[in-house]
Amino acid sequence: MITVKIHSDENRKSYGFEVSGHAYSGDPGHDLVCAGASAIAFGTVNAIGQILQLQPGIEQGENGGFLSCVIDQADLDAEADAKLQIILQTMVTQYYTMVASYGDFIELKYKMI
Questions:
Q1: Torsion sign, CA atoms 39, 40, 41, 42
Q2: What amino acid positions are annotated as catalytic residues?
Q3: In this structure, are residues 83 and 95 in contact, taking their beta carbons and an 8 Å threshold?
Q4: What is the 3-state secondary structure (H, E, C) of 69-107?
Q5: pLDDT of residue 90
Q6: What is the pTM of this model?
Q7: Is-contact 21 68, C-beta < 8 A?
Q8: How many whole angstroms from its chain centre is CA 22?
Q9: What Cα–Cα distance (Å) separates residue 34 from each residue in 9, 48, 50?
Q10: In a designed cystine with 33, which of 3, 16, 23, 78 is the match (CB 3.0 to 4.6 A)?
């Protein structure tokens, strides 16, 4: 199962996420849940870099199955923080859509930071 953890503070603002695991919903190379989850994660990382013009802290598993993205709050002014929240809420909405259809293969959790 793929687990998506959203890193949020007590004000429900998010400053990172982690995607781990494998869906095993299809043969390797034909696993649509894995492909969708990966596309959302990497698209989000790319959007943060392009829109906010900053490089988040990225950690990846050597053999796939793990991506962590952390944004340092100290790097954000109010405008960048607002944009980051929109980017991450869009990501969360996309993952919720996947969970609604493929809940046997992907789950969404929150981690307090």
A1: positive
A2: 22, 34
A3: no
A4: EECCHHHCCHHHHHHHHHHHHHHHHHHHHHHHHHCCCEE
A5: 98
A6: 0.93
A7: no
A8: 15
A9: 28, 21, 24
A10: 23
Sorted by where each starts, the structural domains of the chain and their CATH numbers stand as 2-112 (3.30.70.1490)
Position 7 scores a pLDDT of 96
Task: Give the pLDDT confidence of 59-87 residue by residue, as tens digits.
Answer: 999 888 999 999 999 999 999 999 999 99
Instruction: Please state, in angstroms and rounded to a whole number, the distance separating the CA atoms of residues 105 and 25.
Output: 7
In the beta sheet, which residues pair with residue 19? 4, 67
- Would you say 23 and 30 are in contact if contact means Cβ atoms under 8 Å apart? no
Are 83 and 52 within 8 A, CB to CB? yes
Rg (CA), the chain: 14
pLDDT at 29: 83
> What tokens does 34 get?
């894995």
Cβ distance 85 to 13 under 8 Å? Answer: yes
At 104, is the pLDDT very low, low, confident or very high (cuts 50, 70, 90)? Answer: very high
Q: Which two tokens stand for residue 8?
A: 């949020």
